[in-house]
Design a protein that fits this description.
8-stranded antiparallel beta sheet, alpha+beta, two-stranded antiparallel ribbon, globular, 364 residues
Amino acid sequence: MSESSTCPSRGAMPVPAAAEGEWARRRPVLRALSAAVVLGVVALASTACSDDARPAAAPTTSSATTEAPTEDTSVQDFLDEAGVPAALVTDLGRVAGSTGYGLSRGVPLAGADARSFAVVQVRTCRDMASGFRSRTEFESADVANGAGAADARALYDYLTATFCPAVDSQPSPSPAAAPTTAQDDAAGTRGLLSTDAQLSALYGPGATSECAAATGQPSGRAYAYLLPSGQLLCGDMFDGGPWDGHFIHVDVVFSSPVPEEEALAAVASILPADITAPTALAGVNPPYSPPGSCQSVAWQSTTAGSVVTRINPGWSNPDRVSAVLYSDRQTVDGSASAYDGTVRVATVGIGGHNTNSIDDDITC
């Protein structure tokens, strides 16, 4: 990403190391892989997005003893929480091999690769159950990204008939742990860069299930609030990390598409009051995704800059905040439709326009 870019939104986050196996490394074009963002603390939650934004490494100290690295069990923990037994993971790996979703056609996925693939399909099941995306949409996206139509149909036949009925619904979020050093910024932040305690004092409670239906599965602990004008404010975060319990990404969801001017007023209400006049740029989906477009809007804010710098001093361009406007939804493929000047979902985050690192085009 370029220096001015914002963090990737939920659907575009990189696959965490815990979910990487040979399957994950060799099947990057399929939609399913892009969805495996639920495990561990990903870059958005733990570090800045670009190399020049990362804090300098802490000085190391010599020690006579070195602790062995802790085994990462996040993949298995996720499957256990979803109620997916080992036998079902094995069966899904067999289907992946027979449909060409594995490493080699006819060779079942096994071990870490099978577990990673199962995590992706748990999220697929939950997205279909919530109404966020239909089976037809998932199949079409896979075919657009290189899967055969018959193979995609066979996989989703298996998912809907066998795998998904065994998956537990998304668990309700447990109470969030109190931030370790969070200070009261409620008067200045109003939404983005606020904490759960601050937002709970400002707004009424919303339904995380409605957030999932509009924005997909959360990548961390899910939260939902109702803005005074009735819009749904959705957020998620990982415990710990340099953001210390502050939301650096939220979604504003409208019950039906509204004119851009109305949407921007709602977005501005959850940003610091000292935001500058916005700049707006048209965005398009990446070339590997189905056609779609969006509108990217960016501001600068001294208040945001001071809060970001205090929480995470290594973040570059700390005074930049932005929103991407979608007439329908944002998915792992980008915008689900062409942008028509109306807004159903606005993704709001720290950082500037979401440009890619190749040609600086705005990416949905």
